[in-house]
Amino acid sequence: MTEKKTLSNIKIPEKSNSKMSSSVLEQSDAGEFPFTRGVYPTMYRGRKWTMRQYSGFSTAVETNKRFHLLLKRGQTGLSTAFDLPTQMGLDSDDPLSEGEVGKVGVAIDTVEDMRQLFEGIDLSKISTSMTINAPAIILLAMYAVVAEESGIDPKLISGTIQNDILKEYVASGTYIFPPKPSMRLITDIFEYCSEKYPKFNTISISGYHIREAGSTAVQELAFTLANAREYVRAAIMKGLDIDKFAPRLSFFFNAHNDFLEEISKFRAARRMWAKMMRDEFHAKNEKSMRLRFHTQTGGSTLTAQQPENNIVRVTLQALAAVMGGTQSLHTNSMDEALALPTDKAATIALRTQQIIAEESGVTNFIDPFGGSYYIEWLTDQLEEKASDLIRQVEEIGVLEAINQGFI
Amino acid sequence: MSSKIRVVIGKPGLDGHDRGAKIVARALRDSGMEVIYTGLHQTPESIVEIALQEDANAIGLSVLSGAHNHLFRKVLDLLKMKKAEDIVVFGGGIIPDDDAKALMEEGVIGIFGPGTPLDEIVSFVKDNVKVIE
Q1: ipTM score here?
Q2: Which of A103, A148, A309, A314 is most buried (CB neighbours < 10 A)?
Q3: Closest-CA residue of chain B to A99
Q4: Selected residue of A58, A84, A306, A332 to mutate for chain B interface (largest B Cβ count, 10 A)
């Protein structure tokens, strides 16, 4: 019999048997520590995930039109793509911005642009995710001003800033400042928001980009949680109370091709985070231990050849995210390997989520894969291998590991 | 002087996606060429300057941010200005067919989209880039 391995190179046992994993019997329910089966007791029976398609291009006015269209089609949250000059803290008329303005996202130079971006959208009802890292503090300030000007109680503003600089050094490259002052900006945001915007997610600690840059599922898990631990440590060093800021930390993972491995990865991530928060950082509040995450299907898995097949890939990846208990989801468009999505492709991507949510029946039972010999075994394997890798990172130190190119 | 092909792989603009650039750089290196990788966030000016100083025979540009029309043209213009048109330009990234066609007409010798086999890029460079002794 030929040897089989997961996409992350984990050797798969030949036969299924009940002694593969002790976790099959030791499982706690969803909503209970260590939250392997889900962070909430009711999961999708109570409320479906947020359908949050990443969108933004050209000017604030154009993107605002797209936002209205997406909401009309049944999307339940917004996710703003900023152009590269905005992500790098440059004005649209900076010489370095030439050719880049409004390309991979919307150009936001001023608070006036931000007002136009959300014109006619009730920010007390719609949560907004903003993919912004190095200058996150500025864009968050603009967003807060726009919301407060329209009379919304700051305590009701909900959404997420990505604000994860460590993975920018590792994988996606939009950094401005060196690590130490960047960590200061990030923990300042934790502190300010925990008082002022208690419903806002102050960071989205991202494995997505690490996976897209070529990592395995084990590396995605390990490096994301190692980065997360570094943020928690920095905040504690600053004197913040773990149970004040940790409930607003959120995560962002990739949904790649190996369906069962991905489901297991999300389950392992929850368990590892819960243990880290309780045992290492002595969090008391269960909200600090709940790993809430956004998922995007894997862009690098899509092919330029026979692009229609990408619809099938995205469907399987999205289903893995849902089976893994994601809190929000972006499904990629079939034509992403070629260009910015056409209107038709963007619609199919959103409809894919709606079909999973409304037609497939998979939301009716919480963690339906829980208790499967293979899934429980693989969850254990991923936890074990990722924990080993985290220990190796710890020996070097996270910033040094990034510096050396280990991460 | 060595008779190896010397290639500068450049990442112009603000785009941080460097997986493709690094993979192509490695494939060219492994096939025996001398490869200089510029790192992220370069300007067309800095890339052309690197190519001149390194006596490169070719520049390979990687752009996934949609700014390719501006950035590729700027590099071609600068090479013309510096009378260094013997340095050929090829590239890759998310570049729609129509744009790729237009850029090729203006002097880019090859554009490789997602899914291109590495062998194809290596053979192309070997066949189309000349070492000038």
Answers
A1: 0.83
A2: A314
A3: B67
A4: A84
